[in-house]
Amino acid sequence: MKNSLNILLLAAGLSFVSLHAGAQKIMTIEECIEAARKGNIWAKNAQNDILMAKEQKKFIHSKYYPMVSASFTHFEASKSLINYQIFDKETIDNFNAEMESDFTVGDFTLSFVKKASSAGLTFIEPVYTGGRLTNFNKLADLQVNARNMMSEVTDDQIVMGTEFLYYKIWELHETDKSLDAMEKELNFIHQDAFNYYDNGIVNKNDVLSVELMLDQLSALRIRANNDCRLLRRALAKFMGMADEDIDVDTTLNTEVIDPQQLRVDSHRAMEGRTETQLLDIWVEKAALEKKIAKANMLPIVAVGGRYGYSKVLNGWEPRAIAFVGVQMPLSYFWSEKHEYKRKEIEMQKAIDMRQDNRETMTLQIQDAYDNLESTYKQVQIAEKSIVRAEENLRISRENYKQGMSTMTSLLDAQRQQQQALVQKNTALSEYLQAKTRYLIATGRRTY
After folding, report:
1. Taking Cα atoms as reference points, which of 309, 440, 253 lies closest to residue 364?
2. Biggest alpha carbon distance in the chain?
């Protein structure tokens, strides 16, 4: 009995876990943005770019340290490398004539070093590179700063992308609620029309007209639900949660703020943007590359040493060698000078592009404000339209009941109310996106 109870409890627990694991996850806008910042592929790539830039910086910085190499060499020659002839051939010939001998030159030749071995460590330290190392290290530091700033720009894009999908899903949910309310209203109208028809007050066309509009409304809701499911999957994928069933929290803060309260000076806002700082970095990068191109035409001075052991004639013996070297890139004077001129032109190009992009960003900020102001007005118009559409529907309903208007007029009033409600949801969604876009465009990275 006890074992059976344990099995039932375990089965119930597993069922609960299974149901919980498959449950839909409702997320707020803040939770979606936070998830996208961690799981979105753009965010991951931006972080990897930063790590790569830091490793590049460490690699360049390591060039300040001496280059150390270990080596071992052993050779065996077919003939001795050193041959010392004690007597010349004429002396040997004279000696052979007097002594009646037959010595040859080889009999009076000493041979050395037919094989040898050596092992040791070599140190080389550049003491002058024309500024190459210094400027390469500055360039590496600049690259890290640039990647950090580009990560902020990417974060802005992730926020706007998340909000676009979130607000579109929210808009479809709100539209579905509106359509649901309209469907209930149409059902009431349908019941009234059927009762009037049953009593011979109206003809069947009125009933059919309402039923036709109900069919159109059902088709519209099906299409909206399909779009909503697609957007929900797109949002999950965007956040790096493609395998999860997520939905948005519709209890959203939809406060509509007058754009004048958010407005700032466009030029001052442009100066504070991350993109503006990036433009300055591109100019600085071009200046450093120009210096490096000039350094390539200058000599390199290095000092070094070698300490090791070698075995030539006797046993292993220690040896130490110190040296200094100067490398003068003579051919670079007529090749690298063209690279230097190219970098000079590239730097001027970066300066010109910076000015052009600064002007473009100022226009973008103004465009973002104009869009915010436009969507704000659209929300106000939509709210007024809803009030008028609802009053028009109320009057049309009363007139129809009193036989003073046709079913066509009543359904037109119903359709106008439907359009007004959908228009407000769309206007509100676009306003919320426009507000975020303007805040980001003006360098206010608080969401």
Report:
1. 440
2. 161
Task: Report strand pairing: 25-27 vs 246-248.
Answer: parallel
CA 181 to chain centre: 43
Beta bridge partners of 309: 119, 318
- Tens of pLDDT, residue by residue over 317-359, are 788 888 888 888 777 667 778 888 999 999 999 999 999 999 9
If you search the block for the tokens 């066309």, which residue do you land on? Answer: 205
Alpha helices in 22-131 (DSSP H): 29-39, 41-61, 89-99
pTM for this one?
0.77
Name 377's Cβ contacts closer than 8 Å, sequence gap at least 6: none
Residue 240 backbone class (left: φ over 0; alpha: ψ -120 to 50; beta: rest): left
Cβ(75)–Cβ(115) under 8 Å? yes
> Which burial class, exposed, middle or buried, applies to 76 when counting CB atoms under 10 A from its CB (0-12, 13-18, 19+)?
exposed
Could you tell me how many residues make up the chain?
Answer: 447
**12-57: per-residue pLDDT in tens?**
443 333 334 457 899 999 999 999 999 999 999 999 999 999 999 9
Tokens describing residue 302: 């290095």
287 contact partners, CB below 8 Å, separation of at least 6: 347
Burial of 333 (0-12, 13-18, 19+ CB in 10 A): exposed
The answer to whether 227 touches 172, Cβ cutoff 8 Å, is yes
To 5 degrees, how large is the angle CA 212–CA 218–CA 223?
Answer: 130
Phi/psi of residue 276, nearest 5 degrees: -65, -45
Q: Token pair for residue 71?
A: 């080596």
Residue 69, beta-bridge partner list: 122
